[in-house]
Amino acid sequence: MKKSATVAMPRSKGGDSEKITINLGPVDLGQIDLLVEEGFYANRTDLIRTAIRNQLAQHARVVDDTVARRSLVLGLQHFSRQDLEAVRAAHERLNIQVLGLASIADDVTPELALATIESVQVLGAFHASTAVKAALADRIH
Q1: Tell me: the pLDDT tens digits for 72-92?
Q2: Could you point out which of 22, 67, 68, 88 has its C-alpha 20 to 30 Å from the C-alpha of 39?
Q3: Cβ 33 vs Cβ 19: under 8 Å
Q4: All structural domains of the chain with their residue ranges
């Protein structure tokens, strides 16, 4: 039987943390609990965060190279209503590509989003109103 652990991962560049759920076997979970009990980590989340950060550090060059190659915005990118109105006034369309957090302000209407956003690709988290997400559903990759 697998156990679930929920971890809130802090963002290194802006934004709130996101919760993820992972399934671990009882032996893995027991080993984590043992290390916590022995004082190596404050709690399960501390160990899991540390393990994830170590893996990300090990692969940092691959991430950096891929971000550059794919022209991704790294970190936080927020679009206000004024930002999107300026895009519409310039007769342009956005291709949003973010590694981290992309957010669209709550006062952005689905019509404005459709008129200004060509595509959305977010590796991480995408925050927008339910109506905007529904309007952009076929443009989110």
Answers
A1: 999 999 999 999 999 999 999
A2: 22
A3: no
A4: 3-58, 64-139
